[in-house]
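Open question from group meeting: does this chain pack into something compact, or does most of it stay loose? Before anyone orders reagents, we agreed to write out a predicted structure and look at it together. Recording both the input and the output here so the notebook holds the full record.
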Amino acid sequence: MRSFAVVFMLLASLAAASAQSMSDEAFGRHVGEHFRSGSPSGKHSELAIRVVALPTGELVAPRIPVPAADDGWANSHLLIGCNEAVETKPWRAYRLTASSSFTHFDDTEAFETRQAPRFVVMLESCRLEEEAAAPGDPAALRERNLALRHAPENLHVGPTFVCSDPSKCSGLARTVLAESAAPHLLGPADIALVQPYQVLRHAFPVDRQKLRAESGAFTEAVVKECRIPKRITAENPHGNPEGTERYAPCIAKAYERQRGIWLNAVAALPTAGALEEARRPAVEHRFLQFLLKFHGYLPETTRIDGAYGEATRTAVVAAQTAAGLPTDGFMSDALARLLESKP
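Structure tokens returned:
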């Protein structure tokens, strides 16, 4: 499957001239029926889709509604690829048309490894025509930002760390990594916990050692309270640790409790942007870090993880300077709006 150049697409409109013309919802249901019936292919009428090209060569648009099912696919991604190679320019908008038939398959490995499940539709043929858009056109910017949200590094939110060597990773870390996707969503919970911590770290540089000690004590308390073993060695065939789901609810509650404590401390700061950053939804918080890189304030090699460390703070100050905003280093709502509206 990985040999295909898959693309995330919204089937925004279909040709009305065809007697079999379908809306995007109807197409989703149509594909879903083939999936549930076990049929590997189907036919569709003319499709007319507005897409945006990613630097990777993939095409992306808002996802279409994926047919709900009882097997966990209700929140999956519907990916659409072209069997024929197409040439594109990064971040340009295109009108894609396709007709005839499609084949589909599900990425069960992604589902079983607790990544966002993917349902793939490959079109028999795709035709692209570049669309001209005025600089700063609001509709074009909305499409661009929607495309950015579906870039590969933005599909999974959290956690803020990686574990390259599982044998050296703590039981808590492996649990958070393993339970980052549905249903426990400890990845976003980890980002939400780190948000106010990083704000306090930036606001009180002389107290960072004290804050680090407080964080370490909290981690030890979570391990004890949730009875998490120091190491988790049992693994399933996909390399994920076994039994981590039993600890996840307890971890989530502890993270939320500590987040509240740190948020109360942030609320006492005189800068409004500090609290705006600290309580922003984890998905948006991480996406704004990505926008800093997209607009050139962060180096291309920067890992987008939702943790606003020194490099991200420097990037925020640079963006504030360019926008004529106070350079306090906090991702305020005003700066967030400017980053999203910047061409």
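Observations to bring back to the group:
Strands lie at 6-8, 13-14, 41-53, 59-60, 77-82, 93-106, 118-123, 127-130.
The chain has two domains: 6-140, 166-341.
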